[in-house]
Design a protein that fits this description.
Helix content is 77%, strand content 3%. By secondary structure, the protein is mainly alpha-helical. It has one domain (2-297). Strand 1 and strand 2 form a beta hairpin. Helix 4 runs parallel beside helix 7 (131-155). The longest helix is centred in the last third of the chain and has 31 residues, at 228-258. It is globular.
Length: 300
């Protein structure tokens, strides 16, 4: 019966709209990632992060729209600071990886802590349901995401690593959706997101592993000769990407439920807001980038 309810929520027209939007976004991403120089790509990512910050401000205080501009300006200032912190400029061929790693570790720590927030929801809401704390959560989500995506672009200006991350997260999402709709019965987190099931998680993991195998093959044959340890590490990383993408999805669901919102925004037809589209990506970015830096540094 639960499966039928899920199917009814996603009518063919809604699914078609979601697919069209997703394809257009993917084409735009491929064009921007592969064609833009690293600096201008970084500027584009900063602008997308600012849109996400606008939506996050709605999660902080949905009834006070005047708080959005100060929050956007605050996040914008931090992003500008990251340009100087990392040494991102039109002439730079590389950036400060050590400083980037510190920001990414901070982001990863937040996502690890968020596991306890999810496990204790809704009983622990009083510990974090505060405007200043939710605002800080947004900073710990958005700034490391910006840094991580920029690092990937500078590591391989071709954009291969950026696309690998985005497509891996998308594969986990697509696999979870189709398996969950057709076979989902055991709820993953009924109090947070009733549509998600354990079967969906395994479906997402399976598709993510398949896609990861393709990327690893291409990376080994056309970019970098990988050792057996590196190949196994990257396969394990794809499982980590799936895990954290689910965590990111649930954290956003928790925050939206906290303030009574269905979507974070309405800018993307069929998907809602930018945060609704990248909730898994922002959580997977720190672990993916940190692991990728280790793998590339161990290149023989």
């Amino acid at each position: 019966m639960a499966v039928m309810t899920i199917k009814n929520l996603w009518t063919p027209s809604v699914l078609k709209q979601r697919i069209i939007t997703a394809v257009l976004l993917l084409l735009a991403l491929i064009a921007a990632t592969t064609q833009l120089p690293s600096f201008y790509f970084s500027v584009l990512i900063a602008l997308i992060i600012l849109i996400a910050a606008y939506e996050w401000a709605g999660l902080i205080s949905p009834q006070h729209k005047t708080t959005k501009l100060p929050y956007i300006l605050s996040v914008g200032s931090m992003l500008l600071g990251c340009f100087f912190l990392l040494g991102v400029s039109p002439d730079a061929q590389s950036i400060d990886i050590f400083r980037a790693s510190l920001v990414l570790i901070l982001g990863l720590l937040f996502w690890l802590i968020s596991l306890f927030l999810l496990a204790g929801y809704p009983d622990n809401s009083r510990l974090w349901n505060d405007e200043s704390k939710i605002a800080l959560m947004g900073v710990l989500v958005l700034v490391p995401t910006f840094v991580g995506v920029v690092v990937l672009k500078y590591l391989l200006p071709s954009g291969f690593l950026v696309l690998a991350l985005v497509i891996l997260v998308a594969a986990a999402d697509v696999g979870a959706y189709f398996v969950g709709v057709n076979f989902g019965s055991r709820k993953l987190a009924a109090s947070l997101s009733p549509k998600k099931s354990w079967e969906g998680v395994w479906g997402g993991l399976t598709l993510s592993l398949i896609v990861a195998a393709g990327f690893i093959w291409a990376m080994h044959n056309y970019l970098i000769a990988l050792s057996a340890i590196q190949v196994l590490s990257l396969l394990a990383l794809s499982m980590g990407v799936t895990f954290f993408s689910v965590v990111g999805d649930l954290v956003e669901s928790m925050l939206k439920r906290n303030c009574g919102l269905k979507d974070s925004g309405a800018i993307l037809p069929g998907h809602g807001g930018v945060l609704d589209r990248v909730d898994g990506l922002v959580a997977a970015t720190p672990v993916f980038v940190l692991a990728m830096m280790l793998v590339l540094s161990s290149e023989t």
